[in-house]
Amino acid sequence: MSWFEGLTSKLQEVTEQVSEQAKSAIPLNNDFLEKLTLSTPELDEERKRLDNEERRKEHIKDCLAGLLPWETRDPERDILVEECKDAILKLSQDGATFKGPYLMPGMKVKDVGTSDGESEEEKGKIVEEKPTEESLDKLATLEPLPKLLGCFDLDAHVGLIQRILTEDPHLVEMQSKLSGGGEREYYFWKNYFFHCAFARYEAGLSIDEIWNDEDPAERKAKEEAAAKEAATKAAAKEAEQKVAAESKAEEETITFDNHKTESKSTETPSVPSEGSPEIVSTDVAAVEASSLPADVTTPSSAASASAAGDSSAIDFEKIAAEGIEDDDGFGDDDGFDVELDELEAEIARELED
């Protein structure tokens, strides 16, 4: 064995010894591996909680976005909307709106300064700006507040905030000045929507119409169901109106065609010229007569009877005109000639017998 091979073997033994000592010094158990991979039960539970919270925020963010703070679904109170809108739009122009009735944490402080009789130690004393008495009186008037206002849920107001920021540019400016995220953001909007609720109260609109005690998730589900039902009814009504319009158009077309046909069939026939034979159609009268009871006289049958009577009268007049043989010597135009003829005929028969 050469000196090189001996050195290599020695190094290998030392390496194995170091490896064994390292394994014994750092025991690799399951707890260590879970912490190393961030998969402990506590971390899993926290991750699930955060996921559920994010899903909840996404689900309820638009649950209050159906109505702006001055709007209403009550048609009888529509007349109050403009007055309430003007009052709410003026709120963002007053900084006191966002300072009470709930104290905004970390609010800018002011130097009270000193007055006569105050010591130097009190000079420059810093105090927080407190809510005004007016805002506290308003709070006392509205209490108890609906849950969404009293236990203010900022996540449920996200959609409403987005809508109102597009309507009120002064509110955008105030938010950039007074709100800085975190708790300040929370109390900024809590104070603002409280004053919106009070403006609705003064205008005569319902506060519960927007901020009721219903769970935001349940409220969102109901609004979605109501919107779906309204869309279904609107689609059904539109389809019904379309069918009715098509049916009406079809009836108008058929009526117009029938009118044209009737106009052609009821045209007045041309009057025959003098000397030409007159053509009379009698099949219509025959049909009418056959369809009526025997005791009912139709105009056509009455006309026929009248014509027959006229014919008999004509024959009688013709016989009278030809004259009757005079049998009694009083002329041939008297009423006794016929009776004498009958008498003579009877006498002749008796003589023959």
TrEMBL record:
Residues 148-200 form the BSD domain. Residues 221-265 have a biased composition (Basic and acidic residues). Residues 221-313 are annotated as: Disordered. Residues 300-313 have a biased composition (Low complexity). This is BSD domain-containing protein. It comes from Seminavis robusta.
